[in-house]
Amino acid sequence: MRHNRATLADVARRAGLSKTAASMVLNGREGTRLSAEAHQRVFAAAEELGYRPNVAARSLRTRKTATIAFVSDVVATTRFAGDLIRGALDAARERDHVLLIAETQGDAAFEQHAIDAMLDRQVDGVIYAAMATRRLTVPPALRTGPVVLLNATSSDGLPCVVPDNERAGRTAVAALLDRGHHDRIALIGRNRPKENDPEISLAAHARLRGIQDALAEAGTTLCREAFCHEWLPEHGFKAMRTILRRSARPTAVICMNDRLAFGVYQALAEAGLAVPDDVSVVSFDDDPIAAWLRPGLSTIGLPHVQMGRRAVELLLDGKATGPTTVPMTMRRRSSIGSPAA
């Protein structure tokens, strides 16, 4: 059974004011000469009557729906990248907006359907997101209205929010140099497809550039580089075992992500070596498991929450141009020590 819904006229009548005056109060419009007591009467009447504004009517009048589309590949169902959505949700709520989320699973046909459905609902703008930091081809339908890319860039210079992976590479090197590591630093996770194809990854090339530049400025280079087919624990394990078979064991290892570092920990333990007494380890991403390793893994975290927030802010402010980089923060735990004598 449907109940009669309180109208603006009902609120105005209860407050003893005109509809125009009540509307101005409820919509927070400046310029009313009503007393503070009159404002209180309007809000009290609205609460007592359970008044809810007619969003559809307001949208026709203001051409704003207070909704934002969030379209991604696999962000919503990926535990690791879900904080992108959390940050966007928080920022949208603070701006009195609602986030409409669609995940495409990489299906181009469904992506087009989802985008059409979002645009049909007259969203105020679109956040187009990726789970892995990479360059995207933006569907033509999104280029005609407000859009911000999240964790991604495009060749057409659309506004975007990405993590500062190059500075993160420098941070990893600085953490090791500060503890006295200089000539025997190894890198695990070189991967030419990731480094050379921005549509696969932007992070790999940026992290590598930051690492190499920081080492060059310190007057040193990597003592070992291990290539890995994927950035998974088993590949980190295999790469570390290969490095240990050679002479001149490194005093420190930089892993291109935490999952590689998980494998490195296992290979070192199998060889009877301790972190950080024998080999220090630092990596990137701050996977939740990193804090549970023993010793805890020092890693440079992806600022997903801050990135999601920033994307919403840029979209609603409407002044964004080009890329916005968000700093990555070092999570200092116990995996970095001074080199063994």
From TrEMBL:
Pfam families: LacI (PF00356), Peripla_BP_3 (PF13377). GO terms for molecular function: DNA-binding transcription factor activity; transcription cis-regulatory region binding. The keyword S-adenosyl-L-methionine does not apply. Keywords: DNA-binding, Repressor, Transcription, Transcription regulation. The keyword Chaperone does not apply. PROSITE patterns: HTH_LACI_2. Residues 6-62 form the HTH lacI-type domain. It comes from the Bacteria. InterPro entries: HTH_LacI, LacI/GalR-like_sensor, Lambda_DNA-bd_dom_sf, Peripla_BP_I. This is Alanine racemase. It comes from Virgisporangium aliadipatigenens.
